[in-house]
Amino acid sequence: MPLLPASQARAALTHTLTLYPILNDRNRNRKLKITNVVKGQILQRSGELNTKVFTVQSGLLRSYTIDHKGKEHIYMFAPENWIITDNCEGDIPCDLFIDALEDSTCRVTEKDFEKLTSDRKLLIKRINVLQKRVIMLMSSSAIERYEHFIEIYPEITQRVPQRMIASYLGITPEALSRIRKEISNEKV
Amino acid sequence: MPLLPASQARAALTHTLTLYPILNDRNRNRKLKITNVVKGQILQRSGELNTKVFTVQSGLLRSYTIDHKGKEHIYMFAPENWIITDNCEGDIPCDLFIDALEDSTCRVTEKDFEKLTSDRKLLIKRINVLQKRVIMLMSSSAIERYEHFIEIYPEITQRVPQRMIASYLGITPEALSRIRKEISNEKV
DNA sequence: GCGGTGCATTGATGTAGATCAAGAAGTGAT
DNA sequence: ATCACTTCTTGATCTACATCAATGCACCGC
User: Fold this and answer.
1) What ipTM is given for this predicted complex?
2) H helix and E strand count, chain B
């Protein structure tokens, strides 16, 4: 297999992403602009000059790309207490779409690159997220990747349709269906 | 295919690695302990309580794991001007072997976790290395991963045997051989 | 010279997961 | 209740790469 359908890989090839959990909730009660987002609402479009950082307070966002066939490919999930923003800087338009998988509330702030690259704890969090992703990508078989995923994100498994998990794992929904069948057979 | 032979993936599943280029050469002429390493010499063994950081000044190191069949699987190359160390901390033994692919000289220093996690530029470098690795891992097909590899590491392509590049790419030497044949046919 | 020893190539065959296609089962709108 | 729409499942076939096995080829010590 290709790890990802070729189309997704091509779409993923240029972008990077900042994604990390909130380090503390010192800001949570400060009176900042809170946005309510309804399920399906798009917060950022690929190709836009994005300057926003989204801090999820409740609900679930996702980032994804769309290939030349119009197919979506999920890059990351961002549940409550996570921060998500495209890594694009200056004049470079972002590569990713961001939308809501559930009705959500999030804090929207202007992107501040100084802050994004100066906070040591935040940088360490970003490293940890990336390392997890590398380790998951290195998990060889689809079944291993899936088992690894439900270990790390047990809640998300319940909250999104299977085809999105398949997309995140880089496999087709059909393949995930067969994997789940196999796992449930093993348990009997 | 599995992205990596299953055995390698299992070996890779727990470890992480700090690897980044030297940010400046301010230290290069300071009288620090310089170690000459001959080709094949092992600097670190999996399972040891490693406390060393290796700064490559000339030559080429690699980090790798060994699976239960005794097969080596290359995790990263570290040519001159790169720093390499296992991410293990405290009482946790490291997961990786490190050895020299060429006669090398390197500076060996005690691992200083405070330093490894406090230098902002260094953290950003680590993020960049990880992002490159993620993007490479996401490149779907073996041929795409190989083309991406020779773009990023043109020198290393010339300096190490093919089977090691195959190992880094997560494919077999046979597959790499066929890929190279195909590419040379395309060019004719 | 000559026989190792390790690496690259080539062929044959096996397998995980993609792709295509056809149901089945759930959900919402009229 | 019925129709449309989506998700999940299941089967058939295809493809990229693994695995196994044989051969070629360089470099080495003798």
Assistant:
1) 0.66
2) 7, 9
